[in-house]
Design goal:
By secondary structure, this protein is mainly beta. The protein has one domain. It contains one helix and eight strands, in the order E-E-E-E-E-E-E-E-H. Strands 1-2-3-4-5-6-7-8 form an eight-stranded antiparallel β-sheet. The longest helix has 5 residues. The C terminus is likely disordered.
């Protein structure tokens, strides 16, 4: 339902995901979404975020798998700025047991913005520990991770001493 206090607010949201498995070991996914989120910025009542992306997952063996992904995100931080974010990365995962996996990933993320201070570019390298339970026991999946980021603010790159 639209908020009458916000003239430009539209409560339309969607989420779609499609998978294709050309082989028993490969899975290709395409996805898109439009969401509205509460803003942490004082003068912005909300953020409208639109995402389009794709991923490829491949199992090399029964225990070893990898993935690559790409995301394009447009964030409208209402009354403040427009952001365009590009993310892409790769990951590898190894199942030690039926319920425990280890993994590592690399991700590159770049944000271009109408506000130069909000622009950034960073790389992320992380390691994951995944715990999986039996689905009939309602244990669910738990993934934890440790990552290290190397961030560069685009504004700082253009300054001269």
């Amino acid at each position: 339902m639209a908020d009458p206090a916000l003239a430009d607010y539209d409560d339309t949201v969607y989420a779609a995901r499609a998978y294709w498995a050309p082989t028993n070991y490969t899975n290709i996914g395409l996805y898109a979404s439009l969401t509205t989120e509460e803003s942490i910025e004082f003068v912005s009542p909300y953020i409208e975020s639109e995402l389009v992306g794709a991923n490829l997952q491949h199992s090399f063996t029964d225990r070893f798998r990898g993935n690559v992904f790409w995301n394009e995100i447009e964030d409208d931080v209402v009354n403040i700025r427009m952001d365009e974010i590009t993310e892409y990365g790769v990951g590898i995962y190894y199942d030690l047991t039926r319920w425990l996996s280890l993994g590592a990933y690399w991700k590159q993320s770049t944000r271009d913005s109408t506000d130069p201070i909000a622009e950034y570019e960073y790389e992320s390298l992380g390691f994951t520990l995944g715990l999986r339970g039996r689905r009939d026991a309602n244990f669910g999946n738990l993934h934890t991770g440790i990552s290290a980021d190397a961030r560069t603010n685009a504004v700082d790159q253009t300054r001269t001493p």
